[in-house]
Amino acid sequence: MKRMLTFFALAAVISSFTVMVGMDDVVAALKKGNASQVARYFDNIVEITLPEKSNSYSRTQAETILRDFFRIKSVKGFDVIHIGDNGGSQYCIGTLFTSTATYRTTLFMKQKANKQTLQEIRFENR
Hints:
By secondary structure, this protein is α+β, with helices and mostly antiparallel strands. It has one domain: Nuclear Transport Factor 2, Chain: A (Roll). The protein has three helices and six strands. Mean pLDDT is 89; it is low at 13-19.
């Protein structure tokens, strides 16, 4: 019984670490303005909200839209305000700094099979 309890506790710890690794990778990519690194975590359909448009896109379309946004705005950095988890989903609230504006940024990730996937990313004017 103790072995089984230890196993489940260890599995939970490893699982939560794996979950945060995905979010950490996305945050690191945002700091660099690297759309292809962010896109590695995109789900098949991703909801993207930009100040000028909002829609659901395929993984390929979403990467193109994000790459264009980062190129046009020229990303200077990203600061995390809060990272949390709610019922198996993770979220991050932060600030994206660009050469033209500052954006409140919200990320929503969800565990699918053995992979952490980015479901939604929002950039809102501050």
